[in-house]
Amino acid sequence: MNKKGRGIWITFCLLTILSAVILVTGFVMATSEVIAPQKNPVSLQTEKKKEQEPGEKRLLLGLGDSLTRGTGDADGKGYFGRIREAVRKQYGPVSAVNLGIKGQTSKDLSQQVKQKRVRELLRKADWITLTIGGNDLFRGSGSLEQIDLQKAETTRDEYEKHLTSLLTEIRKQNQDAPIFIFGLYNPFGGLKDQEQTSRLVMEWNQTIIHVSQEKSDVVVIPIYDLFQHNPKHVLYTDRFHPNHRGYSYMAERLGQALHLENSKKGENES
């Protein structure tokens, strides 16, 4: 074969190899799109946008005793009504359901959250507020005139068990919503036995903190200090429940924990 023929043959071979490489590369790219397709960035943005679009109103759910119910507040709002207004100002339309029951104990509430309708609400809730323990403490520790310390300790153990069960059930139904549980205050701070009752309340508050730390995203709202000095200023005429000023202070503390920009400050209410 002469040099000219050899050159044509080499060129032909190179073109053939190049074509084969291009063909194989194209085949690999095509099959990779079928086996492991990459998502279009526009599609990802659309999906995120859909996730952020609420299908229904957010839900603020209140659980607990007479404090969540608002007993003692002249206008009936309590802390829950006030925080509902503040949440709506910041987030727009928000549904709010108050399941607080006057006189409820931790045992009662741990049973209430297992009811079908309550479980449904728990699953839908975006925020959960909670007041519980005051009735357990002051009913289960003997009379105010003669507090039974041993009985109070036994009652605290039972309270810890019920509170643990309660928070476990809430988290079982809803793993994401933050839970805000108020600490306890001493409504008898102005009486002669205030040292003993105050010590009991502080011990119970430690129990609340301990149990809450065992669960995810449970925030304890301290209010002991709000009612310790000059309790008549923040208590209703029954000397047990907060008045409108006391509830306003509670709502302010909760608003701070919720990072609400517009929560009304209790000091401004008289």
Oligomer: single chain
Termini separation (Å)? 111 Å
Parts with pLDDT < 50 across at least 5 consecutive residues: 21-53
Largest sheet: 5 strands, parallel
Gyration radius, in Å:
31 Å
What is the CATH topology classification name? Rossmann fold
Mean pLDDT: 82
**CATH class call:** Alpha Beta
Biggest sheet: strands side by side, in what order? 2-1-3-4-5
Query: Which percent range fits the helix content?
Result: 55-70%
Tally of separate domains: 1
Class from helix and strand fractions = alpha/beta
What name goes with the CATH superfamily?
A: SGNH hydrolase
Order of helices and strands: HHEHHEHHEHHEHEHH
The number of helical segments is 11
Q: Please report the total strand number as a whole number.
A: 5
GO molecular function: phosphatidylcholine lysophospholipase activity
Coiled coil: 149-176
Keywords: Coiled coil
Pfam families: Lipase_GDSL_2
